[in-house]
Amino acid sequence: MESPQEQQTTDAGKPYINTVAALCIAPSGVGDELSEYVAQAVATIRDSGLPNETNAMFTNIEGDLDEVLEVVRAATMKLAGQGYRTGVTLKLDIRPGFKGQLTRKPQLVDEILDKRQ
């Protein structure tokens, strides 16, 4: 089990609370194909500058808790602000003292699986 790394702070001097978010944002009532709408939310996330990756079901984002929540709100408002009923699924993994978990978590799983061979 990994132990927490040294406590870090944000530029504002507040404790840095590392957060990995799995986020899905989609409008309701716009038809069967949602990709054009989802792309608007994903563009907002990518423009944030926070580390992120998009897969078939979610966009994962990593950063300080306050920054992540700000991006979640901005991406949600990209659709809701246009008048669309908008569904949001959000899962947060908050791990103070850590960074780089968006890439490190899959690496750890791969290392464990490699040992099994």
From TrEMBL:
Q: Which superkingdom heads the taxonomic lineage of this protein's source?
A: Bacteria
Which cellular component terms (GO) are annotated to the entry? Answer: cytosol
Domain Thiamine-binding protein, residue spans: 21-109
Q: Which InterPro entries match?
A: MTH1187/YkoF-like, Thiamine_BP, UPF0045_domain
Q: Which family does it belong to?
A: Belongs to the UPF0045 family.
PANTHER family from the xrefs? Answer: UPF0045 PROTEIN ECM15
Please report the name of this protein according to its UniProt entry.
Thiamine-binding protein domain-containing protein
Species, as recorded: Bifidobacterium psychraerophilum
Q: What is the lineage of its organism?
A: Bacteria, Bacillati, Actinomycetota, Actinomycetes, Bifidobacteriales
